[in-house]
Amino acid sequence: MVNVVNQQISESIVRSGDIRGEYPVAVNEDVAWLLGVCLGEWAKRPMRIGIARDTRPSGIALSNALIEGLSDKRLSLVDLGVVPKEVAAFAVLSKRIDLAVVVTASHHPLRMNGFKVLTDPADGQDVVSILSRLKRFSGPSRLSGQAAQHLDGISSMDLCADYVEWVLTEVDPPSDPGPILVSALGGTAASVIDPLASKLGWSMTTNQWRPDDLPSWGPDPALQRNGSAIEGAVVDSGASLGVAWDGDCDRCVFFDSNGRQIATPYINQLIVSQVAKKESGARCISDGRSLFNIEAELKRLGGTLEIVEAGSLWVRQAMVRHQGTYGMESSAHHYFGSLKGFDSGLLSFLHLVSAIEQSGGSIEQAREMCLEDGQCLAEATIENLSIDQATHQLDARFGRYRVSHASQHTQVVFGERDQWRVTLQPSKTERALRMNVEAKKADRSLEALGYDFLQSMQATTREPLAAL
Fold this sequence. Notes:
This protein is an alpha/beta fold. It has 14 helices and 22 strands. It has three domains: about 150 residues, Alpha-D-Glucose-1,6-Bisphosphate, subunit A, domain 3 (Alpha-D-Glucose-1,6-Bisphosphate, Chain A, domain 3, 3-Layer(aba) Sandwich); about 210 residues, 3-Layer(aba) Sandwich (Alpha-D-Glucose-1,6-Bisphosphate, Chain A, domain 3), CATH 3.40.120; about 80 residues, TATA-Binding Protein. α5 packs across α6.
């Protein structure tokens, strides 16, 4: 007789929109199993559930354990393979499946892993309620001997080519954008960029294209350690544009022909220039950290802007609630109404390439056009400082510049008559603040302003402040 002991998932790894923790200490096969059991009991009807994963080595064992936990007779399981998160979202939205679980830790170090649950908002399935249920759920321990019980009954589905075909109905990219350096950082972007390149016949040089290339410190294209390597690869390849994605392909960062990273607010403005032209009165969503460039573009094109709390879940919910056309975060995530609010590295890439062509043919020319509306510093990270501590220290010198919050959450904004803005936002993933500095006029004083704020907070940043 087997003694079955109930277990629970630690609340510390269940976040607002996903599950994430260190493998195998916090996130492991037992957690994956229990997530599967919880989803099986949550399902009120027969459902098709898709399982996808990124390229992390621990993803195989976690996917198998998840499948074991999902061994409910009402559920049909579909292996979506190693694909970007947006392909799993496409599988849900195109009704191939009812729900998807992606085993991924996105841009985080290899020692991390986790799960993202994807649903179609039109079906009334709320990820928040699913994860809230998981926090309270108590289920059986994973039993030895049941490991292969359901693995033989799972079907496979390869949707990458179909997804690329669909994306090309949403964007009409140029026939020849020039040489491009594309870096997957060992992540899943390769599975959609390869069929895209084959379809369009573009000249692309690949960099860190295999799973073996996944850096142990994390496939984060915004991380300077990765950016420096990409900079060299862009220059060496002679590319006119560099593009890099994170592990699950939903974070997208761009580089000019000299390997210099292009600031996210300029990318946001250029994508807005594309989507707002196609949709009159386009509704855009932003986390409010850098606004001058976006506001200028929307004023020209007649769109509207809604400010929400930073974080994928909140932006996605706002995209659905406001029927948003395009959503953006300073963390280089880009959300699209055509994908029902999901973020997409592929759509953002193609929209950006189209914007470059229309601005004169180079990313440098496109950036210069953006600078006419505003300039920003690279987002800075200030460690071990709370928002309350920072605000208290800043009020002594900058209190008269304190303006109403850009959102009704924890974001604090200082500014002067639309001439400059400094935004402080607590990180969702670590004890740190993100500082964004922008000005309407591009000049050297922007860096000095940033350092004035740091001095008043008695703080330093991970990297030197730099105008972009």
